[in-house]
Amino acid sequence: MARPRQFDETAVLDRAMQRFWEHGYEATSVRDLAEAMGLTGASLYNAFGDKRALYRRALDFYIENSFGDRVRRFEGRLAPRQAIGAFFDEIVERSCDAGRRGCMLVNSALEVAPHDPEFQHAVADVLMRIEAFFRRCVEAGQKDGTITSAQSAEDLGRLLMGVLLGIRVLARARPDRDLFEGLLRPVFFLLDLPMKGAIQP
């Protein structure tokens, strides 16, 4: 009979995520991870597999506790235009406070994905989820009249995804709130343009 694990899996996975997020994949050794997680090397391998497998678990954990969490809190609970605004409010806050770590997903796209087909697909899948979230918000906002229909929901969803990624890359080198908000103002102005064909006072 297998012995029950003597640790909180969520807590140790969070510590692994923090280590990878801070130092990147290549610069983080299994010894570093074991020390950060408070595990022996054998316990780490038994619970999570090798370093690459642990990185995938840590990345998935990061995504579900960042992007996934925002979608669950905002989509369907806030009006579509408000959901987009709230999403970016949190992104700006996080990008200013992350200590130049940027976004673990973007870091993975730049460091790991170019050399690993599995991670290429994993990152691409998340980017499609992000794009789909924005597209759904735009479609709903176009239906209720709070978002312009002068541009297609598909194009606006892609624009929002691109701006999100730009902010998260800039956060690595220039975590400047004025810069981020300056990027967002023209985007929100575009979203808030009068509905195509609407009669203006």
From TrEMBL:
UniProt xrefs under PROSITE patterns: HTH_TETR_1, HTH_TETR_2
Tagged with keyword NAD: no
InterPro entries: DNA-bd_HTH_TetR-type_CS, Homeodomain-like_sf, HTH_TetR, Tet_transcr_reg_TetR-rel_C_sf, TetR_C
Gene3D superfamilies: Homeodomain-like (1.10.10.60), Tetracycline Repressor, domain 2 (1.10.357.10)
DNA-binding region(s) from the entry: 29-48
Domain HTH tetR-type, first and last residues per copy: 6-66
Signal sequence, start to end: none
Keyword annotations: DNA-binding, Transcription, Transcription regulation
PANTHER family noted in UniProt: HTH-TYPE TRANSCRIPTIONAL REGULATOR YJDC, TRANSCRIPTIONAL REGULATORY PROTEIN
Name listed for the protein in its UniProt record: TetR/AcrR family transcriptional repressor of nem operon
Lineage, highest ranks first: Bacteria, Pseudomonadati, Pseudomonadota, Alphaproteobacteria, Hyphomicrobiales
